[in-house]
Amino acid sequence: MNGNQPAAARRPESGPCPITPVIDLVFGRWTTPVLWVLNHHGRMRFTELQKLLPDCTPKVLTQRLRQLEHDGLVTRSYYAEMPPRVEYESTELARTLIPVFNALAEWSQQHMDKVLAAREANQDR
Question: Is the pLDDT of residue 76 over 50?
Fold first, then answer.
C-alpha cells in the first residue's frame, strides 16, 4: 500500500482477519439496526426512524446517520420547504449488504437457541 496516500484514501488495515474493517464499519452500535430499517423500509424521515428504533436516543441516531452518510452508506436529502424536510435512504452500496444481513438473520434463527443454551449452561463458570 502506498504510504504517501492521504489518510482518508487509505484502506483500513485488517490485520490477521480480512473482515475486521467491515465489522468496524457496519456492526458498530446502532449502525446495523439503522441500515436494516432503511434497507427494509426505504426512504424515511428522522422521526420515522426514531419510531422504529425507540431505544436509540436522538443524539446517537444523529451520530450514526452522519457517520453512515460519511461512509457512503446513507444519503441525506434536504428539502427547503416550510417546515424543512430531511429524508434518509440507504445507498446502492448499503443495499449490497442485504444478503449479508439476511444470512446473519437466518443464522440467528437457526442457532441462537444453541448459543443461549450454552450461555445458560456455562453461566456458573
Answer: yes
Per-chain mean pLDDT for the chain: 89
Domain that holds residue 61: 16-96
Q: How far apart are CA 36 and CA 94, in angstroms?
A: 10
Name every residue whose Cβ is closer than 8 Å to that of residue 21 and which is 6 or more positions away in sequence. 11, 12, 13, 14
Q: Which is nearest to 74 in space by CA: 32, 19, 23?
A: 32
Q: What CATH number has the domain bearing residue 52?
A: 1.10.10.10
pLDDT of the residue at 14: 63
Residue 117 lies in a domain: no
8 A C-beta contact, residue 96 and residue 25: no
